[in-house]
Amino acid sequence: SFLIGSFGASAVIVFGTPHAPSAQPRNLICGHLIGALCGCIVRVTIYQYEKSIGCAIAVATSIVLMQFTETGHPPGGATALIAVTSEHILPWANFQLILMPALSGAFTMLLVALIVNNMAHKRTYPIFWW
């Protein structure tokens, strides 16, 4: 699947408030990347033993890393939760979620946002790239 639930929130931010810092390409891409990484790592290390603690640690870790890297994108926390709770036969198979759908979907949304947001005469997207 190329879609995850957190992309709905990303779409609201990127298309509804394209001038917001969380809507900029760096935040969009890095927010989903950090969320997916945190979720996948916590799934392998903690979630299989303690589910509720694993969910909390995945989201909290993604928030801290996004703040540390100044790439705040709230749907990235949801991506972490989706990554940690997704079901796979092998725990390490969950790491494919980082590339697809997290990064591939974020890059696709960025491409569409570049086209759609710049079609309007009063909009300029992005404000900054990196």
UniProtKB/TrEMBL annotation:
Q: What range does the record give for the signal peptide?
A: none
Instruction: Enumerate the spans annotated as HPP transmembrane region domain.
Output: 2-126
Question: Which UniProt keyword terms apply here?
Answer: Membrane, Transmembrane, Transmembrane helix
TM region(s), chain numbering: 26-46, 53-69, 89-116
Protein name stated in the entry: HPP transmembrane region domain-containing protein
